[in-house]
Amino acid sequence: MIEMPPLQFADVNGIRMGYYEAGPKSDKPPVILCHGWPELAFSWRHQIKALSEAGIRVIAPDQRGYGATDRPEPVEDYDMEHLTGDLVGLLDHLQIDKAIFVGHDWGGFVVWQMPLRHLDRVAGVIGVNTPHWDRMPADPIELFRQRFGDKMYIVQFQDPGREPDRIFGSRVEQTFDAFMRKPVARPAGTPEEQPIAGVGASARLNLAFPQMIANYDAKHDPRTPILSPEEKQVFVDTFAKTGFTGGINWYRNFSRNWQRSEGLDHTVRVPSLMIMAENDAVLPPSATEGMERLVPDLEKYLVRDSGHWTQQEKPDEVSSKLIEWRRKRFG
């Protein structure tokens, strides 16, 4: 049985946002859980249950373009101003002054931006796998293209013809079968994948995700699935209905976000926790090196034997760490 609180809706920042809430309303500061791509608030099901049972107020939205939340047409409606503005709007709707923002994958990029743009609404930040970096020295899409070539998925996602959206959208079950698995463990002594600022991953990793999905056959995949058949069906049913364009539009704003962040002070001035996953090939622990310069009040924690989907691969460990850090820092 999959446990999720009832779905609720809020009108925020020009869209209708679906969200889930649990735990005592009196608890302050509450915890806002922000998912990545291609995911949903449902990705935090284990943490919603554990944190609320520990007496912590927890809120998990389907973010703009995903699940029960609106999917506006214009690509620019998915830039960082909109994504952070949605979370401020959610706080306003719930009459919350400040919150601790937790983000995994793309949600991590968003929550690290919250204290840069809306400091008065942020009590603390927790990045899960996604580190906080300084502004890149050049347009990130050009850097990705130089480093990884035109087939790298973020470069492909810039395609105005939206071919990647079509590939994923016509193979929804294949997409989640392929992505939501534990990585093959690295033999001892193997060097970690070397990251690139703004996105991890080495050239050894196949980053041509659309082609990988187009040619994928689960029968030949030796990796262990993370999701039960029932859990996988939640993702498949939702994305079959919504498609992937909303989430991919976040990637289509990499250059715009970079241009518009010129002059923004990238120092994070709130208590912060960085949860790293030992075997995440795209956002490896080495990607967090030097974060302390930009995040002076930082604790780091390594989840061993976990790949990219950390809060679903190691739910108890991640939940325990969130609860422990929250109590230590906020009582």
Automatic annotation (TrEMBL):
InterPro entries, per database record: AB_hydrolase_1, AB_hydrolase_fold, Epox_hydrolase-like
UniProt superkingdom: Bacteria
GO MF annotation, one: hydrolase activity
UniProt keyword terms in alphabetical order: Hydrolase
SUPFAM superfamilies for the chain: alpha/beta-Hydrolases
Domain AB hydrolase-1: from-to ranges: 29-315
Keyword Membrane: no
Tagged with keyword Cytoplasm: no
Pfam families: Abhydrolase_1 (PF00561)
PANTHER family recorded: EPOXIDE HYDROLASE
Full protein name: Epoxide hydrolase
Organism: Bradyrhizobium icense
Organism taxonomic ancestry: Bacteria, Pseudomonadati, Pseudomonadota, Alphaproteobacteria, Hyphomicrobiales
